[in-house]
Amino acid sequence: MPGDEIQLEISFQHTANIDRVEAVFAQENAADSQVLFSESRHDDPDHRRSPGDLTTRHLAKLCGDIEDENEHFPGIYRCVSLDVVTSGGARLAFSRLPDLTFEVLPEPVQAPTLQENPKFVEPDLW
After folding, report:
1. pLDDT recorded at residue 40
2. Residue 122 maps to a domain
3. 67: domain range?
4. In a domain, 119, yes or no
């Protein structure tokens, strides 16, 4: 629902230095979509590759905010694109698109419930 944050973690290997990972989720019943961005983090804190091996393991954490119902309509969103952008600027699609979905719920419209009776307080106690 509006105000929620969507988080996704992706572990992968590649020989290039990765700048970021981008995932696009499109709503199944509308053209609206949500894009999640991330900077890649390496499992090896020194980013070192072993001699003779050009592969680096990456761990990316993608985050996206559901901001308002006018932009992100309630419904099921499915991953339609998952790419890396290399440090050199090349955009590369993953070899396999995972079956990932999330649901945006409508914002509740029922009245809030008081937990206790309101009370006046001194202005300097705020």
Report:
1. 61
2. no
3. 5-106
4. no
**Model pLDDT for residues 30-89, shown as the tens digit of each residue:** 766 676 777 666 555 555 566 667 788 888 888 887 776 666 678 888 899 999 998 899
> Based on the structure, what is the number of domains in the chain?
1
Q: Cα(39)–Cα(10) distance, rounded to whole angstroms?
A: 11
Element (H, E) at 82: strand 75-86
CA distance 43 to 8: 16
Residue 90 predicted with pLDDT over 90: yes
Burial 27-43 (b: 16+ CB within 10 A, else e): beeeeeebebebebeee
Q: Please give the DSSP secondary-structure letter assigned to residue 119.
A: -
